[in-house]
Amino acid sequence: MTQGCAAPAQTAHLPATVDLNNEAVIQGTVTRDGVPVSSAYARLLDSTGEFTAEVVTGDEGVFRFFAADGDWTVRVLAAGGVSVDNAVTAKTGEVAALQVAI
Fold first, then answer.
1. Which of 1, 21, 25, 52 has its CA 20 to 30 A from that of 46?
2. Based on the number of CB atoms within 10 Å of its own CB, is 81 exposed (0-12), middle (13-18) or buried (19 or more)?
3. What is the pTM of this model?
4. pLDDT of the chain along its 102 residues, tens only?
5. Going from the N-terminus, what domains does the chain have, and what CATH number goes with each?
6. C-alpha–C-alpha distance, residues 31 and 101, integer Å
């Protein structure tokens, strides 16, 4: 059994255990020239720009956060010094979807 702290695998499909009636989800895909980018970092920043969470994109270039309702920024960091910010609004019952081209 693995112990420690880690984000769950980042896949394109929401886990069956997610109840959108009670969750606000921010999810996106990172691509470069149309190809999914794995191992990029997606950071969730609150409305003041403060760091809240970070996940690494999976094989499909996907990242996902469960957030409180409100305005957020997703900052994607990738190889080659790439840094891209995207504003997004989270709302309970919805998946806020982002497509991030780097």
1. 21
2. exposed
3. 0.81
4. 445 444 556 666 656 566 667 889 999 999 999 999 999 999 999 999 999 999 999 999 999 999 999 999 999 999 999 999 999 999 999 999 999 999
5. 24-101 (2.60.40.10)
6. 5
